[in-house]
Amino acid sequence: MVIKIGVVGAPNKGKSTFFKAVTLKDVDIANYPFTTIKPNVGVGFVTTKCPCTEFGVKCAPQNSKCIGGTRLIPIELVDVAGLVPQAHEGKGMGNQFLSDISLANVLIHVIDCSGKTDILGEACDNADVGQEIEFLQNEIDMWLYGIISSKWDKYFRQIQQLKRDPLEFLAENFSSFGISEKNIVDALDFLELGTDDVMLLKGDDLKRFIFRLSELSRSSVILANKIDVPASADNLQKIKSLYPERVIIPASCEAELALRNAAEKGLIDYVSGGADFTLKDGAQLTEKQKKGLDFLKENVLKKYQSTGVIFALNKAVFDVLGYIVVYPVENETHFTNKHNQAFPDAILIHRDSTALDLAYKIHTDIGDNFIRAINARTKQVIGKDYILKPDDIIKIVAGK
Ligand SMILES: Nc1nc2c(ncn2[C@@H]2O[C@H](COP(=O)(O)OP(=O)(O)OP(=O)(O)O)[C@@H](O)[C@H]2O)c(=O)[nH]1
Ligand SMILES: [Mg+2]
Q1: E strand or H helix at 380
Q2: Which residue among 81, 168, 324, 338 has its CA within the 20 to 30 Å range from the CA of 19?
Protein backbone atom coordinates (compact mmCIF):
# COMPACT_ATOMS: atom_id res chain seq x y z
CA MET A 1 0.00 0.00 0.00
CA VAL A 2 1.43 3.34 -1.07
CA ILE A 3 1.66 6.05 1.59
CA LYS A 4 -0.93 8.75 1.01
CA ILE A 5 -0.13 12.38 1.81
CA GLY A 6 -2.91 14.97 1.92
CA VAL A 7 -1.98 18.54 0.95
CA VAL A 8 -4.33 20.73 3.00
CA GLY A 9 -4.86 24.28 4.19
CA ALA A 10 -6.94 27.41 3.73
CA PRO A 11 -7.54 28.70 0.15
CA ASN A 12 -4.86 30.43 -1.92
CA LYS A 13 -1.89 29.30 0.20
CA GLY A 14 0.05 27.37 -2.46
CA LYS A 15 -1.27 23.80 -2.11
CA SER A 16 -1.54 23.24 -5.85
CA THR A 17 1.85 24.87 -6.41
CA PHE A 18 3.31 22.37 -3.92
CA PHE A 19 1.53 19.53 -5.73
CA LYS A 20 2.71 20.67 -9.16
CA ALA A 21 6.30 21.24 -8.00
CA VAL A 22 6.42 17.64 -6.77
CA THR A 23 4.46 15.83 -9.49
CA LEU A 24 4.99 18.21 -12.46
CA LYS A 25 1.32 17.56 -13.28
CA ASP A 26 -0.37 20.44 -15.02
CA VAL A 27 -2.88 21.70 -12.44
CA ASP A 28 -4.56 25.06 -11.98
CA ILE A 29 -2.71 27.62 -9.89
CA ALA A 30 -4.06 31.13 -9.44
CA ASN A 31 -4.00 34.04 -7.05
CA TYR A 32 -7.57 33.71 -5.79
CA PRO A 33 -9.41 31.36 -3.41
CA PHE A 34 -10.99 28.06 -4.54
CA THR A 35 -8.94 27.59 -7.67
CA THR A 36 -8.98 23.88 -6.89
CA ILE A 37 -12.38 22.26 -6.52
CA LYS A 38 -11.86 18.60 -7.41
CA PRO A 39 -8.91 16.88 -5.70
CA ASN A 40 -5.74 16.42 -7.78
CA VAL A 41 -4.11 13.03 -7.26
CA GLY A 42 -0.54 12.33 -8.31
CA VAL A 43 2.69 10.55 -7.54
CA GLY A 44 5.50 12.26 -5.66
CA PHE A 45 8.50 10.77 -3.91
CA VAL A 46 10.58 10.80 -0.77
CA THR A 47 14.35 10.62 -1.02
CA THR A 48 17.08 8.71 0.76
CA LYS A 49 20.70 7.75 0.09
CA CYS A 50 20.80 4.72 -2.21
CA PRO A 51 23.07 1.91 -0.91
CA CYS A 52 24.56 1.56 -4.43
CA THR A 53 27.15 4.25 -3.60
CA GLU A 54 28.14 2.65 -0.29
CA PHE A 55 28.73 -0.74 -1.93
CA GLY A 56 30.03 0.59 -5.26
CA VAL A 57 27.55 -1.42 -7.34
CA LYS A 58 25.29 -0.38 -10.20
CA CYS A 59 21.72 -0.59 -8.94
CA ALA A 60 18.67 -1.49 -11.02
CA PRO A 61 15.67 0.01 -9.21
CA GLN A 62 12.30 -1.53 -10.05
CA ASN A 63 9.78 0.04 -7.65
CA SER A 64 11.66 3.34 -7.31
CA LYS A 65 14.36 5.43 -9.05
CA CYS A 66 17.99 6.28 -8.36
CA ILE A 67 19.42 9.59 -9.53
CA GLY A 68 23.11 10.13 -8.80
CA GLY A 69 23.04 7.99 -5.66
CA THR A 70 19.74 9.40 -4.33
CA ARG A 71 16.91 6.87 -4.15
CA LEU A 72 13.46 8.29 -4.98
CA ILE A 73 10.58 6.27 -3.52
CA PRO A 74 7.01 6.93 -4.69
CA ILE A 75 4.22 8.18 -2.45
CA GLU A 76 0.72 9.37 -3.37
CA LEU A 77 -0.20 13.05 -3.05
CA VAL A 78 -3.73 14.42 -2.87
CA ASP A 79 -4.22 18.17 -3.36
CA VAL A 80 -7.66 19.28 -2.25
CA ALA A 81 -9.85 22.34 -2.22
CA GLY A 82 -9.08 25.05 0.33
CA LEU A 83 -10.63 24.58 3.74
CA VAL A 84 -12.38 27.52 5.39
CA PRO A 85 -13.59 28.09 8.98
CA GLN A 86 -16.88 26.27 9.64
CA ALA A 87 -16.08 23.72 6.93
CA HIS A 88 -17.28 21.00 9.33
CA GLU A 89 -20.75 22.57 9.00
CA GLY A 90 -20.52 22.27 5.24
CA LYS A 91 -19.04 25.70 4.42
CA GLY A 92 -16.85 25.90 1.32
CA MET A 93 -16.15 22.37 0.12
CA GLY A 94 -16.99 21.25 3.65
CA ASN A 95 -17.57 17.69 4.67
CA GLN A 96 -16.61 15.97 1.44
CA PHE A 97 -13.21 17.53 1.75
CA LEU A 98 -12.82 16.45 5.36
CA SER A 99 -13.68 12.85 4.57
CA ASP A 100 -11.21 12.92 1.63
CA ILE A 101 -8.35 13.92 3.89
CA SER A 102 -9.22 11.42 6.61
CA LEU A 103 -7.93 8.77 4.19
CA ALA A 104 -4.44 10.28 4.15
CA ASN A 105 -1.71 8.78 6.35
CA VAL A 106 -0.20 12.19 7.00
CA LEU A 107 -1.07 15.78 6.14
CA ILE A 108 1.08 18.58 4.79
CA HIS A 109 -0.61 21.71 6.04
CA VAL A 110 0.30 24.61 3.73
CA ILE A 111 0.15 28.09 5.26
CA ASP A 112 1.07 31.45 3.73
CA CYS A 113 3.96 32.55 5.94
CA SER A 114 4.13 35.97 4.27
CA GLY A 115 0.83 36.98 5.89
CA LYS A 116 -0.36 38.44 2.59
CA THR A 117 -3.54 36.35 2.42
CA ASP A 118 -6.16 35.93 5.15
CA ILE A 119 -7.88 32.79 6.40
CA LEU A 120 -10.35 32.95 3.48
CA GLY A 121 -7.54 33.37 0.95
CA GLU A 122 -8.22 37.06 0.23
CA ALA A 123 -5.32 39.51 -0.17
CA CYS A 124 -4.41 41.42 2.99
CA ASP A 125 -1.42 43.15 4.58
CA ASN A 126 -0.59 41.31 7.73
CA ALA A 127 -2.60 38.18 8.46
CA ASP A 128 -2.29 36.26 11.74
CA VAL A 129 -0.32 33.28 10.45
CA GLY A 130 -0.76 31.36 13.73
CA GLN A 131 -4.54 31.42 13.23
CA GLU A 132 -4.09 29.27 10.13
CA ILE A 133 -2.40 26.59 12.20
CA GLU A 134 -5.16 26.55 14.83
CA PHE A 135 -8.19 26.54 12.61
CA LEU A 136 -7.39 23.44 10.58
CA GLN A 137 -7.08 21.25 13.65
CA ASN A 138 -10.27 22.71 15.04
CA GLU A 139 -12.16 21.91 11.83
CA ILE A 140 -10.93 18.32 11.83
CA ASP A 141 -11.78 17.91 15.55
CA MET A 142 -15.28 19.33 15.09
CA TRP A 143 -15.95 17.24 12.01
CA LEU A 144 -14.95 14.04 13.79
CA TYR A 145 -16.97 15.03 16.84
CA GLY A 146 -20.03 15.63 14.67
CA ILE A 147 -19.84 12.17 13.10
CA ILE A 148 -18.95 10.09 16.14
CA SER A 149 -21.28 11.81 18.63
CA SER A 150 -24.25 11.43 16.29
CA LYS A 151 -23.64 7.66 16.08
CA TRP A 152 -22.68 7.12 19.72
CA ASP A 153 -26.05 5.78 20.93
CA LYS A 154 -26.30 3.50 17.93
CA TYR A 155 -22.83 2.06 18.65
CA PHE A 156 -23.93 1.45 22.21
CA ARG A 157 -27.04 -0.49 21.14
CA GLN A 158 -25.13 -2.55 18.59
CA ILE A 159 -22.44 -3.50 21.09
CA GLN A 160 -25.13 -4.76 23.50
CA GLN A 161 -27.22 -6.53 20.87
CA LEU A 162 -24.26 -8.23 19.22
CA LYS A 163 -22.49 -8.83 22.58
CA ARG A 164 -19.31 -7.33 21.14
CA ASP A 165 -16.18 -6.20 22.90
CA PRO A 166 -16.65 -2.38 22.95
CA LEU A 167 -13.02 -1.55 22.23
CA GLU A 168 -12.79 -3.94 19.30
CA PHE A 169 -16.12 -2.75 17.89
CA LEU A 170 -15.17 0.93 18.13
CA ALA A 171 -11.74 0.28 16.63
CA GLU A 172 -13.42 -1.38 13.63
CA ASN A 173 -15.79 1.55 13.19
CA PHE A 174 -13.13 4.22 13.63
CA SER A 175 -10.50 2.67 11.38
CA SER A 176 -11.76 4.63 8.37
CA PHE A 177 -10.79 7.81 10.26
CA GLY A 178 -7.26 6.49 10.79
CA ILE A 179 -7.99 5.81 14.48
CA SER A 180 -6.50 2.64 15.99
CA GLU A 181 -7.42 0.62 19.07
CA LYS A 182 -4.27 1.97 20.72
CA ASN A 183 -5.47 5.53 20.08
CA ILE A 184 -8.75 4.68 21.85
CA VAL A 185 -6.94 3.21 24.86
CA ASP A 186 -4.58 6.21 25.02
CA ALA A 187 -7.45 8.71 24.81
CA LEU A 188 -9.25 6.94 27.68
CA ASP A 189 -6.02 6.95 29.63
CA PHE A 190 -5.73 10.69 29.09
CA LEU A 191 -9.18 11.10 30.67
CA GLU A 192 -8.05 8.78 33.49
CA LEU A 193 -10.69 6.24 32.48
CA GLY A 194 -10.42 2.48 32.10
CA THR A 195 -11.45 0.59 28.96
CA ASP A 196 -14.66 -0.59 30.68
CA ASP A 197 -15.81 3.02 31.01
CA VAL A 198 -15.82 3.76 27.30
CA MET A 199 -19.53 3.28 26.71
CA LEU A 200 -20.45 5.45 29.71
CA LEU A 201 -18.96 8.54 28.10
CA LYS A 202 -21.36 11.38 27.41
CA GLY A 203 -21.59 15.17 27.21
CA ASP A 204 -18.33 17.05 27.74
CA ASP A 205 -16.38 13.88 28.51
CA LEU A 206 -17.39 12.39 25.18
CA LYS A 207 -16.29 15.60 23.46
CA ARG A 208 -12.91 15.59 25.21
CA PHE A 209 -12.49 11.91 24.33
CA ILE A 210 -13.18 12.53 20.63
CA PHE A 211 -10.95 15.62 20.49
CA ARG A 212 -8.14 13.62 22.07
CA LEU A 213 -8.70 10.79 19.56
CA SER A 214 -8.51 13.35 16.77
CA GLU A 215 -5.21 14.69 18.09
CA LEU A 216 -3.68 11.24 18.63
CA SER A 217 -4.60 9.91 15.21
CA ARG A 218 -3.51 12.99 13.24
CA SER A 219 -0.03 13.47 11.95
CA SER A 220 0.97 16.57 10.08
CA VAL A 221 3.79 18.80 8.99
CA ILE A 222 3.30 22.55 8.66
CA LEU A 223 4.68 23.95 5.43
CA ALA A 224 5.40 27.65 6.01
CA ASN A 225 5.14 28.63 2.35
CA LYS A 226 6.13 31.77 0.39
CA ILE A 227 9.39 32.32 2.29
CA ASP A 228 10.73 34.03 -0.84
CA VAL A 229 8.57 36.99 0.28
CA PRO A 230 10.69 39.08 2.72
CA ALA A 231 7.90 39.47 5.32
CA SER A 232 7.95 35.69 5.87
CA ALA A 233 11.15 35.61 7.94
CA ASP A 234 9.59 37.38 10.96
CA ASN A 235 6.39 35.38 10.79
CA LEU A 236 8.38 32.15 10.66
CA GLN A 237 10.17 33.01 13.94
CA LYS A 238 6.84 33.97 15.49
CA ILE A 239 5.06 30.70 14.72
CA LYS A 240 8.13 28.63 15.63
CA SER A 241 8.15 30.12 19.11
CA LEU A 242 4.35 29.92 19.47
CA TYR A 243 4.23 26.25 18.42
CA PRO A 244 7.54 24.73 19.54
CA GLU A 245 6.14 21.19 19.49
CA ARG A 246 5.00 21.34 15.86
CA VAL A 247 7.11 20.41 12.84
CA ILE A 248 7.30 23.66 10.86
CA ILE A 249 9.22 23.75 7.58
CA PRO A 250 9.99 26.98 5.72
CA ALA A 251 9.34 26.54 2.01
CA SER A 252 8.94 28.21 -1.32
CA CYS A 253 6.81 26.04 -3.57
CA GLU A 254 7.06 28.62 -6.32
CA ALA A 255 10.88 28.38 -6.18
CA GLU A 256 10.80 24.58 -6.38
CA LEU A 257 8.44 24.75 -9.34
CA ALA A 258 10.57 27.34 -11.13
CA LEU A 259 13.77 25.35 -10.57
CA ARG A 260 12.22 22.10 -11.74
CA ASN A 261 10.83 23.82 -14.84
CA ALA A 262 14.22 25.35 -15.62
CA ALA A 263 15.86 21.94 -15.18
CA GLU A 264 13.25 20.32 -17.47
CA LYS A 265 14.01 22.91 -20.12
CA GLY A 266 17.71 22.06 -19.87
CA LEU A 267 18.69 25.50 -18.54
CA ILE A 268 20.09 24.37 -15.18
CA ASP A 269 21.31 21.27 -13.37
CA TYR A 270 19.09 20.85 -10.32
CA VAL A 271 18.16 17.76 -8.35
CA SER A 272 14.74 18.19 -6.69
CA GLY A 273 15.16 19.21 -3.09
CA GLY A 274 18.82 20.10 -3.59
CA ALA A 275 20.67 22.95 -1.88
CA ASP A 276 21.89 24.54 -5.10
CA PHE A 277 21.76 24.53 -8.91
CA THR A 278 24.23 25.36 -11.63
CA LEU A 279 23.68 26.96 -15.01
CA LYS A 280 24.16 24.55 -17.89
CA ASP A 281 27.02 25.29 -20.27
CA GLY A 282 25.72 27.22 -23.23
CA ALA A 283 22.20 27.65 -21.80
CA GLN A 284 20.43 30.56 -23.45
CA LEU A 285 18.78 32.47 -20.62
CA THR A 286 16.85 35.67 -21.00
CA GLU A 287 17.77 38.55 -18.67
CA LYS A 288 14.48 37.99 -16.81
CA GLN A 289 15.17 34.26 -16.30
CA LYS A 290 18.68 35.03 -15.04
CA LYS A 291 17.38 37.59 -12.57
CA GLY A 292 14.69 35.21 -11.34
CA LEU A 293 17.15 32.38 -10.75
CA ASP A 294 19.61 34.70 -8.97
CA PHE A 295 16.78 35.88 -6.73
CA LEU A 296 15.90 32.30 -5.73
CA LYS A 297 19.53 31.43 -5.08
CA GLU A 298 20.04 34.41 -2.76
CA ASN A 299 16.66 34.53 -1.04
CA VAL A 300 15.67 30.88 -0.78
CA LEU A 301 18.51 28.40 -1.26
CA LYS A 302 21.26 30.32 0.52
CA LYS A 303 18.99 31.29 3.42
CA TYR A 304 17.09 28.04 3.92
CA GLN A 305 19.38 25.37 2.34
CA SER A 306 16.61 24.10 0.05
CA THR A 307 13.17 25.08 -1.20
CA GLY A 308 11.73 22.95 1.63
CA VAL A 309 9.37 21.01 -0.64
CA ILE A 310 11.05 17.59 -0.78
CA PHE A 311 12.38 18.11 2.74
CA ALA A 312 8.78 18.43 3.95
CA LEU A 313 7.79 15.15 2.28
CA ASN A 314 10.78 13.39 3.86
CA LYS A 315 9.98 14.86 7.26
CA ALA A 316 6.35 13.78 6.98
CA VAL A 317 7.16 10.19 6.05
CA PHE A 318 10.36 9.48 7.99
CA ASP A 319 9.99 11.61 11.13
CA VAL A 320 6.29 12.18 11.67
CA LEU A 321 4.96 8.83 10.40
CA GLY A 322 8.10 7.01 11.58
CA TYR A 323 8.80 5.05 8.42
CA ILE A 324 12.20 3.66 7.40
CA VAL A 325 13.54 2.28 4.11
CA VAL A 326 14.71 -1.32 3.78
CA TYR A 327 15.96 -3.25 0.75
CA PRO A 328 14.81 -6.85 0.28
CA VAL A 329 17.17 -8.98 -1.88
CA GLU A 330 17.34 -12.63 -2.92
CA ASN A 331 21.12 -12.87 -3.09
CA GLU A 332 22.76 -11.62 0.10
CA THR A 333 26.25 -11.48 -1.43
CA HIS A 334 25.47 -9.43 -4.54
CA PHE A 335 22.34 -7.70 -3.18
CA THR A 336 20.36 -8.79 -6.23
CA ASN A 337 17.03 -10.35 -7.11
CA LYS A 338 16.73 -13.43 -9.30
CA HIS A 339 17.22 -11.33 -12.43
CA ASN A 340 20.61 -10.13 -11.16
CA GLN A 341 19.28 -6.64 -10.49
CA ALA A 342 21.01 -4.98 -7.52
CA PHE A 343 18.89 -3.23 -4.86
CA PRO A 344 15.76 -3.67 -7.00
CA ASP A 345 13.22 -2.52 -4.40
CA ALA A 346 13.21 0.11 -1.71
CA ILE A 347 10.41 -0.61 0.78
CA LEU A 348 8.88 1.98 3.09
CA ILE A 349 7.86 0.31 6.34
CA HIS A 350 7.10 1.48 9.89
CA ARG A 351 10.14 1.51 12.17
CA ASP A 352 8.58 -0.95 14.65
CA SER A 353 8.25 -3.61 11.95
CA THR A 354 9.84 -7.05 12.10
CA ALA A 355 11.43 -9.27 9.47
CA LEU A 356 8.11 -11.14 9.34
CA ASP A 357 6.20 -7.89 8.70
CA LEU A 358 8.54 -7.22 5.79
CA ALA A 359 7.91 -10.72 4.43
CA TYR A 360 4.16 -10.08 4.51
CA LYS A 361 4.64 -6.71 2.87
CA ILE A 362 6.45 -8.37 -0.04
CA HIS A 363 3.85 -11.12 -0.43
CA THR A 364 1.34 -12.97 1.76
CA ASP A 365 2.82 -16.32 0.64
CA ILE A 366 6.29 -15.25 1.70
CA GLY A 367 4.93 -14.20 5.09
CA ASP A 368 2.95 -17.44 5.53
CA ASN A 369 5.96 -19.58 4.62
CA PHE A 370 8.65 -17.57 6.39
CA ILE A 371 11.54 -19.76 7.60
CA ARG A 372 14.28 -17.28 8.48
CA ALA A 373 15.95 -14.16 7.15
CA ILE A 374 19.52 -13.03 6.60
CA ASN A 375 20.84 -9.58 7.35
CA ALA A 376 22.82 -9.05 4.13
CA ARG A 377 25.06 -6.40 5.70
CA THR A 378 26.34 -8.71 8.46
CA LYS A 379 25.42 -12.07 6.83
CA GLN A 380 23.84 -13.04 10.16
CA VAL A 381 20.76 -15.22 10.31
CA ILE A 382 17.83 -13.38 11.89
CA GLY A 383 14.44 -14.60 13.07
CA LYS A 384 10.93 -13.42 12.38
CA ASP A 385 10.95 -11.10 15.41
CA TYR A 386 14.02 -9.14 14.32
CA ILE A 387 13.19 -5.40 14.39
CA LEU A 388 14.19 -3.77 11.12
CA LYS A 389 16.64 -0.88 11.09
CA PRO A 390 16.91 1.97 8.57
CA ASP A 391 18.70 0.89 5.35
CA ASP A 392 18.68 -2.80 6.28
CA ILE A 393 19.29 -5.16 3.37
CA ILE A 394 17.33 -8.34 4.03
CA LYS A 395 17.09 -11.73 2.36
CA ILE A 396 14.02 -13.69 3.34
CA VAL A 397 14.08 -17.46 3.13
CA ALA A 398 10.60 -18.91 2.71
CA GLY A 399 9.42 -22.51 2.19
CA LYS A 400 6.97 -23.59 -0.48
N1 LIG B 1 5.57 34.27 -3.55
C2 LIG B 1 5.08 33.03 -3.60
N3 LIG B 1 3.86 32.80 -4.11
C4 LIG B 1 3.42 31.52 -4.14
C5 LIG B 1 4.20 30.43 -3.64
N6 LIG B 1 3.48 29.29 -3.80
C7 LIG B 1 2.32 29.65 -4.38
N8 LIG B 1 2.27 30.99 -4.60
C9 LIG B 1 1.17 31.78 -5.22
O10 LIG B 1 0.01 31.67 -4.39
C11 LIG B 1 -1.18 31.69 -5.19
C12 LIG B 1 -2.04 30.51 -4.86
O13 LIG B 1 -1.42 29.31 -5.26
P14 LIG B 1 -2.20 27.93 -5.45
O15 LIG B 1 -1.17 26.87 -5.57
O16 LIG B 1 -3.22 28.05 -6.51
O17 LIG B 1 -2.92 27.88 -4.02
P18 LIG B 1 -3.99 26.81 -3.46
O19 LIG B 1 -3.71 26.71 -1.99
O20 LIG B 1 -3.97 25.56 -4.24
O21 LIG B 1 -5.34 27.61 -3.67
P22 LIG B 1 -6.87 27.05 -3.80
O23 LIG B 1 -6.90 25.92 -4.74
O24 LIG B 1 -7.60 28.24 -4.28
O25 LIG B 1 -7.26 26.68 -2.39
C26 LIG B 1 -0.69 31.70 -6.66
O27 LIG B 1 -0.69 33.03 -7.12
C28 LIG B 1 0.74 31.16 -6.54
O29 LIG B 1 1.56 31.60 -7.61
C30 LIG B 1 5.50 30.73 -3.11
O31 LIG B 1 6.26 29.84 -2.68
N32 LIG B 1 5.88 32.03 -3.12
MG1 LIG C 1 -5.41 24.66 -5.35
Answers
A1: strand 380-382
A2: 324
CA atoms in the 13 A half-sphere facing the CB of 385: 0
* Within a domain: 143: yes
Question: Is residue 234 located within the same domain as residue 269?
Answer: yes
Counting atoms of ligand 1 from 1, which one is nearest the CA of 110? 19
Question: In a 3-state reduction of DSSP, which class is residue 112?
Answer: strand
Q: Looking at the structure, do residues 377 and 256 belong to the same domain, yes or no?
A: no
Give residues whose Cβ lies within 5 Å of ion ligand 2: 15-16, 35-36
Range of the domain at 362: 324-398
| Single-letter amino acid, residue 172 | E
The domain tally of the chain equals: 3
| 225/127 Cα distance (integer angstroms) | 14
Q: In what order do the strands lie in the sheet with 393-398?
A: 347-350, 323-329, 393-398, 370-375, 380-382
Segment (H or E) for 262 = helix 253-264
pLDDT in tens, 95-106: 677 777 777 889
Is the minimum distance from the CB of 212 to ligand 1 under 6 angstroms? no
Q: Give the H/E segment covering residue 147.
A: helix 129-161
- CA 387 distance to own-chain centroid: 23
Crossing angle for the helix pair 203-217 and 129-161, to the nearest 10 degrees: 110
Closest CA to 121 of 236, 284, 10: 10
The pLDDT score that the predictor gives to residue 29 is 83
Q: What is the pLDDT of residue 112?
A: 97
At 101 the pLDDT is 76
Ligand 1 centroid, distance to 276 Cα (angstroms): 23
Task: Tell me how far the alpha carbon of residue 311 lies from the centroid of ligand 2, in angstroms.
Answer: 21
- Whole-model pTM: value is 0.91
Is 15 contained in some domain? yes
Low-confidence ranges of the chain (pLDDT < 70): 91-95
pLDDT tens across 229-263, in order?
A: 999 999 999 999 999 989 999 999 999 999 999 99
Nearest to 218 by CA among 181, 250, 177, 168: 177
Count CB-CB contacts under 10 A for residue 106: 21
Ligand 1 atom nearest 82 alpha carbon: 25
Q: Are 208 and 232 members of one domain?
A: no
* Residues 111 and 199 occupy one common structural domain: no
pLDDT of amino acid 197:
85
